[in-house]
Structures are given as structure tokens and as C-alpha cells.
Amino acid sequence: MAGDRAPDPTAPGPGGDVADRLALLQLEAEYARTWDLRDADGWAGVFTADGAFELGAVGEKPALRFAGTAALADFCRRATGRYDGIHLLSPPSLTIDGDTARGWVHFQYFDRDRKTGARRQVVGVYAVTYRRTGPAGWRMHLRREQAVMEDDVFAGFPTAELMWGLGPDEAPRPDEAPRPD
Predict the structure, then answer these.
(1) In which band, very low, low, confident or very high, does the pLDDT at 164 lie, cut at 50, 70 and 90?
(2) Between the CA atoms of 11, 168, 53 and 122, what dihedral angle is there, to the nearest 10 degrees?
(3) pLDDT at 60
(4) S-S: 40 plus which of 1, 76, 80, 144, CB 3.0-4.6 Å?
(5) Count: domains in the chain
(6) Which structural domain, as residue segments, surrounds residue 135?
(7) In this structure, what CATH number is given to the domain that contains residue 50?
(8) Does residue 181 sit within a domain?
(9) Does residue 163 form part of some domain?
């Protein structure tokens, strides 16, 4: 059935601009590359000036939020100063609407604590809101991370409503929102 097919990413119209999709893919690659290479200023630079990164609560660990270029760079410096790690990202499921876009990205992250030698593996989801910022191009305005599994502890799979902070009546329709399946 035609209604069961995924939208054609090369088709003109909302969400169909190939150049925008390629730019957003590159931005995702820069997010991982700059963090993994401990380039705090470069990592903060993938966000808008008022952008934010949020870590969802996991078990006893509280949710955290870092907003603005200086706070983002400081967070990256502190975290990558202690841990060596690497991100493995899935290609994002993207919905583009003019100068804004949303992405849903699955990830794995492996790291090692330089002080203790402890190793950790995290599997999770990023829900990302992007904005086109003029000459600088696309930047992340909000990136929410929710761990689904840390080491051997499964925490459950987050919903789009949870990840984008929307109530059930405000959630994007399934054909508008990136789906995790």
C-alpha cells in the first residue's frame, strides 16, 4: 500500500531536500568526532549559541542540562578530561520543515575512565531539534540523550513524547516524527 511506504528523501517538498539531509548527517558526524577527539570548542560549536544538551535520568543518576556555548564547552572538557571514548551513531531519522528539523538517532558509546580504568558501554537514543542558522548552516538547538542500556542494565525504551517533552496530545503524528522502529 502507498501509505505504508517511507517518504522519498529525494522528493521535493517538506523533508525532501537532499542538501539539508546531507548537512544534518555531517553535523551528526561532527558531534561525535569533536567529542571523541576532546575538541570541546568544536563540540559546543555544533550547537546554536543558545543550544542545550540534556542527559536523561538513569537509575540513581539525575537528569542534567547544559545550555549555552560556554556551559557546553565546559561540560565537554570535564567529561572528556576523565574519559576516553568513542560514539557509534546510527544514521538519523530526519523530519525537515523549512529552517527547523527533528532527528532521532540511536547510539552506542564506549568509554574508559582514565583514573580507574573502568570500562562502560551505553546504548541509547538522541532526540535532536536542529535549526538553520544562516551562514553557519544547520546547528543543534536541543539534543536530548536517554540511555536505554548501561552495561547490563536495561532501562526501557523512551517514547517520542518523553524525548521531545510533549504531552500525548502534542506529540507529532507518526508520519511527522522520527520513529524508533
Answers:
(1) low
(2) -90
(3) 81
(4) 76
(5) 1
(6) 14-156
(7) 3.10.450.50
(8) no
(9) no
